[in-house]
Amino acid sequence: MTATLALERTALRRGACPSIATPMQTGDGLLVRLRPVAAALTARDLHALADLARAHGNGLIEITARGNFQLRGLSADTVPRLAEGLAASGIVPQTGVAIEVPPLAGVDPSEITDATPVAEALRRAITGAGLRLAPKLAIVVDGGGQLNLGDMVADIRLDAVSQAEGFAWRLSLGGDRTTAKAVALLSPEAVIDGTMTVVEALAAIGPTARGRDLDPEALGAGQVPLALPAASSLHPLGLHDIGGETVLGLAPAYGQMHADHLAALMDGLSACGAVEFRLAPHRTLLVRGLSEATLAAARAHADREGFWSSADAPGRAISICAGAAGCASGTFDTHAAADAMVAHAGALLDGSVDVHISGCPKGCAHPASAAVTLCGTAAGIGLVAPGRAGDAPEATVSPETLEPAIQRIGTLLRARRAENETAKSLLDRTAPATLASAYQGLT
């Protein structure tokens, strides 16, 4: 079987992450997701990525909510060429199970420990065991720090916990730092073997098993800590002081950029002294090497190329997928809907709640529940408040009347909002039926 034919047969697979080996068919061609093995990237690396996106796809590049790159608009013929181009450029994509560490692991002096060695050892152990695991299985190894992964949901979590002498790893399942169910407290020496017990238990269930499918009490051995408090974690977007170093988090608007803008951004930031770039959660790219003297110019370059550089950018509270323009399952223009949210419903976008705009009920951009979700369906664009994209909507409008519907919700919330009230507080005291009535124009 030729490589092209093999790709054609795998392109329509669902339930698997769209890697170079298994690209996903979307409305604008094949999509490939990749995360470089190297945590630190150079401007040269990102220029090469931009060149490859233009040469082999449609030039669109995305940064995902979990901090991966996605290249769009490829074909069965160009995916192998992309793989060759990445190899020639020295960009090696990670393979196997997704194991995530904080973006500044080993750099942030406030972390409890560098998570990278544990993540690498665990990856080797899983690969060596030859286990069949769920394609979307996610593992977080969080050593702490200012940009920790406390809010990231995973099937398996390892969270570093400070102790009177040294630290231990809290092993938990199926959630973020505060919601995952504890299994055990492991010493640094026992962490790989203890975690592999859970991995093997998942493999024993079958290749679709996820963390939620295991019983933590049945797996638990030794001391299990009480639930951990929420970690003080900064959103990576914006300006950070990391041990006296200036780190700037940039995000392409709604997570998507064109290769031309990425290349121009690299030129501008390099001129400002930037020397290193790191992918981070929440669709962010961290920039290192800037000084106080060049920071304003760097932010001006970002703004000119369509990147957010401030933690209070209103659009950052919105998660969107490619929508009808980029996915065969999308039923409406999600980018236009997000712009309408920013323009007319700013009361929702202070960052205290999540807003999700999904082209279809799969909810790829934000699988968890959101305070407000707009979801494309066969009947129109449904409003779910709160809930997931696949939940039954409170109300539905046609794509042609979506912007006025968003305007009505914005008007309602502005009228109800008390001075300095957060979006979370406002929505907590606003009945979903009230939102639905405004959305449909019944009030």
Explain how this protein is built.
This protein is an alpha+beta fold and 443 residues long. It is built from 12 helices and 20 strands. It has helices spanning 3-10, 43-56, 78-89, 116-129, 191-205, 216-219, 259-271, 292-304, 334-344, 402-416, 423-428, 432-440; strands at residues 24-26, 29-34, 60-63, 69-74, 98-100, 138-142, 154-162, 167-175, 181-186, 238-242, 245-252, 256-258, 276-280, 284-288, 307-308, 318-320, 355-358, 372-377, 380-384, 395-397. It has a 5-stranded antiparallel β-sheet. It has a 5-stranded mixed β-sheet with strand order 5-6-7-8-9. It starts with a helix and ends with a helix.
Question: Strands, helices and their partners?
Answer:
Elements: H1 3-10, E1 24-26, E2 29-34, H2 43-56, E3 60-63, E4 69-74, H3 78-89, E5 98-100, H4 116-129, E6 138-142, E7 154-162, E8 167-175, E9 181-186, H5 191-205, H6 216-219, E10 238-242, E11 245-252, E12 256-258, H7 259-271, E13 276-280, E14 284-288, H8 292-304, E15 307-308, E16 318-320, H9 334-344, E17 355-358, E18 372-377, E19 380-384, E20 395-397, H10 402-416, H11 423-428, H12 432-440
